[in-house]
Amino acid sequence: MKKEEKPGSPEGPNAGGNDAYWASALLSKEAETWNRRARRKRARWRRVIALSNGLKRVVDVVGSLCAILLLSPVFLFTAWAIKREDGGPILFKQMRVGERGRHLRHLRAKPGISCPWQIEGGGRSAS
């Protein structure tokens, strides 16, 4: 026995080219079901992306805190060396020109050598 084919079905003789089938499918509950599924999928992906962005932020913050804790002895040693060498403050305020000409104030650590040209030998290479 042969399976009876509907003239407007996608398995019919004009598969893929029958506009009547697709027009009726768009008006049917089938299209409604597909739209509902698509909305659910989009909502699920939004939640996954929000969760992954939140997780990335947590990893960034925890990683930064671990790096600060691990490098704090180096920072303290550098601060101590600058204070011993120069005797002045370790940090100083500096003005910079930022985007669109805005002036930005930020703190900087003093360099190890305040006047390299005053060091014996000039502080520059002879070549």
Task: Explain what the structure shows.
The structure is a single chain. A hairpin with a 5-residue loop joins β1 and β2. The N and C termini lie far apart (98 Å). The chain has a two-stranded antiparallel sheet. It has 2 helices and 2 strands; from the N terminus they run ααββ.
Features:
127 residues; 2 helices; mainly alpha
Report the average pLDDT across residues.
78
Which bin fits the share of residues in helices? 40-55%
Q: In what order do the strands lie side by side in the largest sheet?
A: 1-2
Which structural class should the secondary elements be placed in? Answer: mainly alpha
Number of strands: 2
Strand coverage percent:
5-15%
Helical element count? Answer: 2
Radius of gyration: 35 Å
Biggest sheet layout: 2 strands, antiparallel
Number of individual domains: 1
Q: What low-confidence regions span 5 or more consecutive residues with pLDDT below 50?
A: none
Order of helices and strands: HHEE
Distance between the termini: 98 Å
**3D shape:** elongated
Question: TL;DR?
Answer:
It is built from two helices and two strands. With about 130 residues, the chain is mainly α. It has one domain.
Task: Describe the secondary-structure layout.
Layout: H1 19-27, H2 29-86, E1 91-97, E2 103-109
